[in-house]
Task: inverse folding
């Protein structure tokens, strides 16, 4: 048995994708954990930007919301929300947008709006928030999501955030300044778009996970790279940094409840 | 010119049935006390405008105050669903809720357009998103200089903006700091503005670039310490993340929700009494 969980490995692998000095627009939840782990390990100069307006946040603990006070206190500066979306995101200052997804399809299009029909939804999800414009304005997009046949689906019920549209060069017709999704990190492996068809392809598989398992957790016929890599397991340093961050976070949120 | 009044009087004077109301504060400085007072005074048929409905609108929607919602992200941050918001959209309870859905970029721009006195906002937004197919207020314009097609959304011009701030001085000038969200834009876009504040001071001691709303753009100020709880007021108290988690169980079931609202909001006279009651229940 490995000495780490699938979620821990997913977060570690996601963190590794962020190079030092990257300017990263961070979604709440899994992306925020990965981006802060990157900052606390190999990328001390990464610039974390949250849509609440905080630029260069360096929180000691993970925020529960996108606007926890520590994001502002630890930031280089805090701007208004209109400024954040207009000058910084639309203005082209973001290298990587880091998003989560409720549903994703083979071309990296994301649904966070509804399950079922828009006007009569079976499940109403929170909606777009900043994601639609992060997906089209950030230089590139990373996605982190737990992989299952319910979330990695043949057809998403609603396109909230544009990925590679219907594949190939079809994204081009929207004239999005950003390049779209370049990697999808899951608890089973990593998927990257085929350079020509733009279909998400399994290019790395996590240790102990079988290709069959990954295929079963995908709602379309998952393509597997010829040169399938096996993900490097978390190092002791990565794991201890992540666990310390999560322990600090749990303690802080418990205290705040009192 | 600003009037210093009780919160009850501010709501009674400035918010009427059928008004469009923007209670803003992006995670920070959410005017929760004002939301409770609107519920106590049983306002109806409101068009509620807010980027993130959060607990404040979950409560107003569940208590039947809203006819329509304009929003861009409807979740309980870091916890999950807003159950009253979902129940209204999925099942029409307690009454059907019309809604106009945007993304944050468009909604922030729409407030800025309202504050700027412009009829609409243009942005490079909604590219390839299905939102434009379902919201007739998401249209497009062609740039007269480059020919680029841009998304266009109507300016937000609420009847009333409601915000919570850290400080007001005795002349009625208001200071906010920390995550300032869209409050300045919401106030300047609205016809009337109600502000609740943590404290009233002699001197704001604000630097020249601080976010200050001059007294002559504010209609009424009410002194409501802790009026943003369970969200937070930077420099005064932290976000009560535990309450956001507890709200999930309180709001999931209609009867539990109604009983909780009756006991804690309808049967309390003001926000101080509400907070005392909730604190006692949490420690029991």
Result:
């Amino acid at each position: 048995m490995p000495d780490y969980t699938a979620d821990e490995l997913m977060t570690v692998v996601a963190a590794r994708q962020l190079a030092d000095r990257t300017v990263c627009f961070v979604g709440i939840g899994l992306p925020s954990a990965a981006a802060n782990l990157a900052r606390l390990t190999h990328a001390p100069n990464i610039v974390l930007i949250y849509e609440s307006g905080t630029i260069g946040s360096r929180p000691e603990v993970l925020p529960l919301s996108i606007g926890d006070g520590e994001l502002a206190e630890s930031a280089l500066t805090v701007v208004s929300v209109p400024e954040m979306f207009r000058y910084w995101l639309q203005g082209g200052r973001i290298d990587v947008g880091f998003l989560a997804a409720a549903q994703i399809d083979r071309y990296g299009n994301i649904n966070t709006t509804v399950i079922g029909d828009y006007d009569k939804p079976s499940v109403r999800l929170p909606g777009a928030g900043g994601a639609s414009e992060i997906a089209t304005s950030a230089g590139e997009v990373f996605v982190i999501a737990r992989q299952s046949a319910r979330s990695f689906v043949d057809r998403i019920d609603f396109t909230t955030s544009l990925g590679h549209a219907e594949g190939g060069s079809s994204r081009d017709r929207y004239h999005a300044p950003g390049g779209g999704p370049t990697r999808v990190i899951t608890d089973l492996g990593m998927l990257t778009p085929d350079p020509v068809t733009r279909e998400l392809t399994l290019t790395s598989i996590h240790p102990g996970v079988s290709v069959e398992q990954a295929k079963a957790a995908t709602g379309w016929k998952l393509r597997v790279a010829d040169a399938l890599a096996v993900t490097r397991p978390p190092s002791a340093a990565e794991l201890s940094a992540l666990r310390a961050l999560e322990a600090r976070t749990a303690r802080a949120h418990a205290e705040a409840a009192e | 010119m600003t009037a210093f009044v009780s919160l009850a009087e501010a709501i009674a004077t400035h918010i009427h049935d059928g008004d469009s109301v923007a209670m803003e504060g992006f995670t920070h400085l959410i005017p929760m006390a004002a939301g409770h007072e609107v519920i106590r005074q049983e306002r109806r048929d409101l068009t509620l405008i807010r980027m993130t409905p959060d607990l404040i609108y979950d409560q107003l929607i569940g208590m039947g105050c809203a006819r329509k919602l304009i929003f861009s992200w409807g979740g309980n941050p870091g916890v999950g669903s807003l159950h009253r918001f979902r129940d209204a959209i999925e099942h029409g309870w307690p009454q059907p809720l019309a809604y106009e859905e945007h993304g944050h970029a468009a909604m922030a721009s729409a407030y800025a357009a309202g504050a700027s006195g412009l009829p609409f906002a243009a942005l490079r937004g909604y590219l390839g998103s299905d939102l434009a197919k379902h919201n007739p207020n998401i249209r497009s314009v062609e740039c007269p200089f480059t020919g680029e097609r841009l998304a266009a959304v109507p300016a937000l011009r609420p009847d009333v903006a409601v915000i919570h701030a850290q400080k007001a001085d005795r002349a009625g000038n208001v200071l906010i700091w920390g995550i300032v969200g869209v409050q300045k834009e919401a106030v300047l876009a609205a016809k009337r503005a109600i502000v609740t504040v943590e404290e009233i001071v002699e001197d704001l001691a604000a630097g020249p670039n601080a976010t200050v709303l001059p007294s002559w753009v504010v209609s009424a100020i009410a002194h409501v310490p802790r009026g943003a709880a369970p969200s937070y007021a930077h420099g005064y108290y932290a976000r009560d993340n535990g309450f956001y988690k507890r709200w999930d169980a309180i709001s999931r079931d209609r009867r539990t929700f109604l009983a909780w609202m009756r006991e804690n909001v309808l049967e309390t006279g003001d926000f101080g009494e509400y907070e005392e009651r909730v604190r006692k229940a949490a420690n029991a």
In short: The mean pLDDT of chain B is 97.
